[in-house]
Write a structure and sequence with these properties.
The protein contains 17 helices and 13 strands. It has about 475 residues and is an alpha+beta fold.
Length: about 475
C-alpha cells in the first residue's frame, strides 16, 4: 500500500536554470482541476475509479511539468493510482531519450507532451478492492515541477468518495389476515366435585366442593359481565374413575353431570338446552397419562394392560390382582383426580374497527382481538418501530399455531436480524408464497446462498415481486464474496 505520496527521483538536466515566473504564470500553478463523471464502483474483488479530467487549464512550458495523481485516502491509509503527467517538449524528450521508467511517477504514468495533451481525458484505474477502501475519499494531488526537480506548487482537492454499499434491507412481505366474521372464543377448566359413595346429588358444603363450584361460576361470571362478550353455550362433561363396576360408574358419571348442570342452571337464567352435557364412565386416558409419568414399579406392565383394550372391569381387576402395591398407590393418589367435571364456556366477542380502541384493548385484554384487528394497529404504526413489532409479537403469542401470525412475526424478526427467532416462526408459517420468500430472505442473511437462490426463485415464480430485488442483492453478495 502506498504512502500518502511518493516523491519520485528524476535525472537532472545537464544545464539547468530556473527562469523567474511572471504573475500570470504563477496564477496558473496548481490550479484546481475540473472533473466530471467521477465514479468509484466495486465489482467483486476490484474497485474501478473513473472520471473525466479537464486538462485545458494545465500547461507545461519551458522546463516545466505537471503531475496529477489520484489518491484513495481513508484516515492514515492511502493508495496512489496511476498518475497523469503533462510535460513541456524539452522535458518530455529528455525522459524519452533516457528511460520511460524515469517519468515523474514511473512507467504506468499516462504521459503527454504539452502540445499534444487532450482537452479532456477519460481516466480509469482498476485496482484490487481492500476493506479499508470503504468510505475512502478520492483526491487529486497536483504538483507543478520546475527545473532540477523543484516543486513549484502543490494542491490537493477532494472530488469523490467511495461509499460503502448500503447494508441490504430486505423488503418484507407481510400478509393481512382474513376478517374473522364471528369471533368465537372459549374458556375451559376442570372442577373436582366430591360426592358421597354411590351418590349423585351435589352438596356444596361437602369437603372442597364450594371452592370447586366457585371455579365454574367465576368463569361464567367473568365473561357474562363483559359488555363486549356474549355467552353462546356452556358444556359440561363428567368422568368417573375405574374403581368399581363399569355399569355403576356409567350411572354415577351421568347422574353427577346432570346434578352439576342443574346446580349451574339454578344460578343463571339460561334456557333449558343452553347447557350441554356428556359423560365418560371411566377416565382411562387420564389413568394412562398418570401411569406413563409415574415411577411405579410395574409401570410398563400396567401400561400394557391399559392399552390392551377389552372389558374395563376385567382390566381394572387385573391391575388390582397382579400389582396390589401399585394399585393401592393409584387408588390413593390417582383415582380421586379421575373423578372430575370438565367445563367449557363458549362465547363471541364483538368486532373492533377503531384503531385507538383496538390499542387500548390490546394493552388490557388482547385475547378479545382477531388477527385482522391487530393488523389494523400495525398498519397505523411506523414500519420497523417498536410499536409495529410489538403488534406482531402479541399476535403470535395469541395465535401460536396460525401460519399468518407466525409469518408476520418472522418478518419482524428478520427486520431485527434476529435469525434464530425468524427460523422458529417460519417453521410454523406454512407454504404460502410469502413464507417461501421469507425463508429465502433468512437464508440470504445467513449467507446460505444456494438455499436462498432456490427459495427466492420459487417465490418469484409465485408472483412475489419483492424477490426480484432480493435476487439482485444475492448476485452482488456472491460477487463480493468471490
Amino acid at each position: 500500500m502506498n504512502t500518502f505520496f511518493k516523491r519520485y527521483m528524476m535525472l537532472a538536466f545537464a544545464a539547468c536554470s530556473l527562469a523567474p515566473l511572471s504573475g500570470a504564470q504563477a496564477d496558473m500553478l496548481a490550479d484546481s482541476l475540473k472533473t466530471g463523471r467521477v465514479s468509484l464502483k466495486r465489482d467483486g474483488r476490484y474497485l474501478t475509479v473513473s472520471m473525466l479530467l479537464d486538462l485545458r487549464t494545465v500547461t507545461a512550458e519551458g522546463d516545466r511539468a505537471v503531475l496529477v495523481t489520484p489518491l484513495l485516502v481513508n484516515g492514515d491509509t492511502n493508495k496512489a493510482l496511476k498518475a497523469v503527467g503533462i510535460y513541456s517538449r524539452r522535458r518530455y524528450y529528455h525522459y524519452a531519450r533516457t528511460d520511460a521508467e524515469n517519468m515523474l511517477s514511473g512507467p504506468d504514468e499516462l504521459s503527454f507532451r504539452n502540445s499534444e495533451k487532450p482537452d479532456t481525458l477519460a481516466y480509469e484505474a482498476v485496482i484490487p478492492y481492500e476493506k479499508w477502501m470503504d468510505g475512502a475519499s478520492l483526491t487529486l494531488f497536483r504538483q507543478d515541477y520546475g527545473c532540477c526537480d523543484a516543486v513549484l506548487a502543490e494542491r490537493q482537492q477532494t472530488i469523490g468518495r467511495f461509499a460503502k454499499r448500503p447494508e441490504f434491507v430486505p423488503r418484507l412481505a407481510y400478509v393481512q389476515p382474513e376478517v374473522e366474521r364471528v369471533k368465537t372464543r372459549f374458556l375451559s377448566g376442570t372442577a373436582f366435585i366430591d360426592f358421597p359413595v354411590s351418590r349423585t346429588e351435589i352438596r356444596p358444603d361437602y369437603r372442597n366442593n364450594r371452592r370447586e363450584l366457585d371455579k365454574i361460576t367465576a368463569t361464567i361470571d367473568s365473561v357474562q359481565a363483559d359488555a363486549d362478550i356474549t355467552i353462546t353455550s356452556v358444556a359440561i362433561k363428567g368422568y368417573a374413575s375405574p374403581e368399581g363396576s363399569y355399569g355403576l360408574n356409567t350411572r354415577l358419571a351421568e347422574g353427577r353431570t346432570e346434578a352439576l348442570k342443574q346446580y349451574v342452571s339454578r344460578l343463571y337464567d339460561f334456557e333449558n338446552d343452553f347447557i350441554r352435557t356428556s359423560s365418560e364412565p371411566e377416565d382411562w386416558e387420564g389413568l394412562r397419562r398418570y401411569v406413563a409419568e409415574s415411577t411405579l414399579e410395574h409401570k410398563r406392565e400396567i401400561l400394557d394392560i391399559i392399552d390392551a383394550g377389552g372389558d374395563p372391569d376385567r382390566k381394572e381387576r387385573q391391575i388390582k390382582t397382579a400389582y396390589p402395591s401399585d394399585y393401592r398407590h393409584l387408588l390413593q393418589h390417582c383415582y380421586p383426580a379421575l373423578r372430575h367435571s370438565d367445563y367449557r364456556i363458549e362465547y363471541t366477542v364483538r368486532s373492533f374497527t377503531d384503531v385507538e380502541e383496538i390499542r387500548r384493548v390490546m394493552r388490557t385484554q388482547p385475547q378479545k382481538l382477531s388477527l385482522q384487528e391487530l393488523f389494523l394497529v400495525a398498519q397505523a404504526s411506523q414500519a420497523g418501530s417498536r410499536d409495529f413489532d410489538e403488534v406482531f409479537d402479541i399476535a403470535v403469542r395469541l395465535y401460536p399455531d396460525n401460519p399468518v401470525a407466525n409469518l408476520n412475526a418472522a418478518n419482524t424478526a428478520l427486520s431485527r436480524k434476529d435469525l434464530p427467532a425468524a427460523r422458529r416462526y417460519l417453521a410454523k408459517a406454512g407454504d404460502m408464497p410469502q413464507a417461501v420468500y421469507a425463508r429465502g430472505i433468512c437464508a440470504l442473511l445467513e449467507k446460505n446462498y444456494p438455499e436462498a437462490e432456490t427459495l427466492l426463485k420459487q417465490a418469484q415464480s409465485a408472483g412475489i415481486t419483492e424477490a426480484d430485488t432480493a435476487l439482485e442483492e444475492l448476485q452482488l453478495l456472491r460477487e463480493e464474496d468471490d
